[in-house]
Amino acid sequence: MDNSGAKQTCCGSLRDFFTSAKFLIYMGHALSTWGDRMWNFAVAVFLVELYGNSLLLTAVYGLVVAGSVLLLGAIIGDWVDRNPRLKVAQTSLLVQNSCVIVCGILLMVVFQFKEQLAELYNGWILTTCYILVISIANIANLASTATSITIQRDWVVVVAGQDSSKLADMNATVRIIDQLTNILAPMLVGQIMAFGSHFVGCGFISGWNLCSMCLEYTLLWKVYQKTPALAVKAGQKEQHQELKQLSPTSDVENSQSPEESSQPLMNEASVVARPDSPKEHGCCYQVSEPLRTLKSGWVAYYNQNIFFAGMSLAFLYMTVLGFDCITTGYAYTQGLNGSVLSLLMGASAVSGICGTVAFTWVRKKCGLIRTGFISGVAQLSCLMLCVISVFAPGSPFDLSVSPFQDLYTHLVGEKALPEVDQSLTSILSSGNATTPSPAEELPPLQSYMSVSLLFSGVIAARVGLWSFDLTVTQLIQENVIESERGVINGVQNSMNYLLDLLHFIMVILAPNPEAFGLLVIISVSFVAMGHMMYFRFAFKSLGSRVFLCCSPEQKVETVDRPSLPTTV
After folding, report:
1. For residues 309 and 42, what is the distance between their CA atoms, to the nearest angstrom?
2. Which of 91, 219, 223, 346 maximizes the CB count within 10 A of its CB?
3. How far is CA 209 from CA 86, 174, 206, in A?
4. For the chain, what percentages of helix, strand and coil (3-state, to nearest 5) are there?
């Protein structure tokens, strides 16, 4: 009897877990992220193939995507804040997947009839198809940004309730899913395109997104049903009707909104007044509404108590010390082949997963704010290996070679003009494209000590990097009031993209391998400045207790900064 009772209890626990809102969010996020990773990898390959093995279209796509999020991040976040949660999630899901499906069908047509399209109207029909693909793919990315904000930055907080430990575990699990799909999804679609064709790859991705959209839509609705608090949103007049339709018997139990129950660590004075409804004003007011929303969003971001924590995370994007096209291209010039690079990328993913696991453990022992401080120290300590690699044997670092020599040669030299297209666009691309094969085989290096130290530091630093990222993410979740979660996270995404663009510009100005050591030093300097900002935030919040892991943390204190106007 005891064994049967234990089995029933175990089965009941498993059933409760697999039907819980938390698990359903994991499933929906896994499906969404898998489709995103497949599409982000494949669209770069498709654009390269369409434009005659040139990276021009890939570079244009990367710039359009980055520029759009940079300009529209706050507006997207404001739209998330102003509308009911279920409507936002369903709309962004439908728009994102529909755009990917349309893009896939359009690419299938182009691959099938490329020669015929190139002959119509002197190739303008084909050019129009390229513009449509990039534009629709950009809309899909903006919808993906809205989905990420509403699910990862809002729904997760509501599902976790007031349990900070549960929120930390959910954030870590979501990040582990990101790491795994970032490796496995490109591998799957890459094999399909390798053994099939690009036409087959487009069809597979379109079919996947169609099926995934239906499943994700169902999962979102189930999560919404299981979490009545999702129907309560600050500033929404219809929240009572939503609660009544969802669960008529839960009105009394859930009358308190998440904003009231979670007691955010946000100062009431820092809330920025939103513009009035455009219905009360004329046409000019409505036309200028996006500009006011953009301005008020950035002002609201500046006035947050966690402003320096968010800025510290953005500064970490100003670095060449990651596994993108820049670092892998440099590694190839140093004699590493594709097989070794793939193993290093796998090790980097494992290191990132270790960082997410370490985050939950350190947070329980030392608290959330100190976890960020410890993670920053760990990341900077590991990056010192990268600085040492600049001066180690085998390093091509040479200050006597002008960092701008290659750029000047490409722009002025007639023989180099055909090469500028691939050189600059490969730097501007978002890292999804593969490194082009050089015309000549690179000579073997005398020593691999420099490149070994470089990648050892990059891989080891991923533990601190991902732990720090989770720390700042949870600080934003816990300290931004519910009515501003969307716009603040939208501005945070814009800041991240801005610093990411700056790091690509930095590489364009100094693209030769001899200057890569200088880029490493600049990157580590920006990472150090970012962590100095976080240290200021932590010290203002905890004082000297930031160094005492056994001391309990308290609510974030107001940070003294020059005030900006709170009305537009």
Report:
1. 34
2. 223
3. 20, 20, 5
4. 75, 0, 25
CA 451 – CA 441 distance, rounded (Å): 18
CA distances from 13 to 2, 18, 93, 174, 444 (A): 16, 9, 31, 21, 58
As a whole number of angstroms, the distance between CA 142 and CA 489 comes to: 13
* Among 74, 66, 72, 29, residue whose Cα is nearest residue 489: 74
CA 467 to chain centre: 15
For the ranges 370-384, 499-513, 553-567, the one whose mean pLDDT is highest: 370-384
Residue 39 has pLDDT above 50, yes or no: yes
- H helix or E strand, kind and range, residue 67: helix 56-82
Query: For residues 275 and 292, is the Cβ–Cβ distance under 8 A?
Result: yes
pTM of the shown model: 0.77
Residue 207's contacts (CB-CB under 8 Å, 6 or more residues apart) are: none
Pull the structure tokens for residue 263.
Answer: 């007691």
DSSP count for the chain of H helices, then E strands: 22, 0
12 vs 18: CA distance, rounded Å: 10
Q: Which residues of 480-515 are buried (b: 16+ CB within 10 A; e: fewer)?
A: bbbbbbbbbbbbbbbbbbbbbbebbebbeebbbbbb
Q: How far apart are CA 490 and CA 78, in angstroms?
A: 8
CA angle 487, 492, 494 (to 5 degrees): 95
For residue 438, what pLDDT is reported?
43
Cα Rg for the chain, rounded, in angstroms? 25
* CA neighbor of 448 nearest in space, from 392, 377, 518, 374: 392
Given the structure tokens 């073997």, which residue do they identify? Answer: 444
